[in-house]
Amino acid sequence: MTLGQRFVRFATDVVVRHPALWRIFRGPIRRQFDRLAPRWESIRGPDFLAPLEAALDLLPAPPQRVLDVGTGTGAAARLAGARYPEADVVGIDVADRMVDEARRLTESTRVTYRVADAERLPFDDASFDLVTLNNMIPFFDELARVTAPGGHVAIAFSLGDRTPIYVPPERTIAELARRGFTHVASFRRDPGISLLARKGDHS
Ligand SMILES: C[S@@+](CC[C@H](N)C(=O)[O-])C[C@H]1O[C@@H](n2cnc3c(N)ncnc32)[C@H](O)[C@@H]1O
User: Fold this and answer.
1) DSSP codes of every residue in 80-131
2) In the list 58, 132, 163, 167, which could disulfide-bond 157, CB 3.0-4.6 Å?
3) How far is the CA of 71 from the centre of ligand 1 (A)?
4) What's the gap in Å between 140 CA and the centre of ligand 1?
């Protein structure tokens, strides 16, 4: 891993344990991804969405309202827009240059983007029936808040434990369970992994 990637991994480890410390990492990470934005589409592997797609394949019904957190240049948001032709999809990212690129690359008017911080999402409680994260630091309290009862969260790391932003599945499952989610299934699309979790009907 490069120095920048090691820093992102360190930030992920700290923030998952202590989300309040995100304020220390926010500026450097935003600047790092702003710098990467013009090249982002060319530096990812070809199958980097395969683990996420494996999780989405198991959704019981097409979602109507989809949020992609840490959308980068919007690839997962566009994927959701294409898979779910009835859905409104919003991708958010803290790096405005990533959001600029995502807007430039997206044709569908049902797929929109906002500059926003996953630590404090600018959406009402229970706004989404699917929330996706591809190679993104999970802020579990906010994920739980914006996911509607009965809705799903799909979390993928396209290079498995070699992904710079990576949270071990057992940790992810435990954090989600604490907030009323049931683990539906885990997936392996070598080298990537993903999981799908469902929020309880009454949580
Ligand atoms: C590794 S990139 C993944 C981008 C995209 N999901 C993909 O798979 O191509 C992580 C993205 O998350 C964004 N990000 C990191 N922390 C964030 C936060 N707290 N709120 C919103 N976006 C964040 C970064 O700016 C970056 O664009």
Assistant:
1) HHHH-TT-EEEEEES-HHHHHHHHHH---TTEEEEE--TTS-SS-TT-EEEE
2) 163
3) 6
4) 15
0.70 surpassed by pTM:
yes
User: Ligand 1 within 6 A of 16 CB?
Assistant: no
What's the one-letter identity of residue 195?
A: L
Strand order in the sheet with 192-199: 111-115, 88-93, 65-69, 128-134, 147-157, 192-199, 181-189
- Tell the residue nearest (CA) to atom 4 of ligand 1: 72
Q: Is 147 in the pocket of ligand 1 (CB under 6 A)?
A: no
| Token pair listed for 181 | 């989610």
At 59-97, the pLDDT tens digits run: 999 999 999 999 999 999 999 999 999 999 999 999 999
Q: Is 132 in the pocket of ligand 1 (CB under 6 A)?
A: no
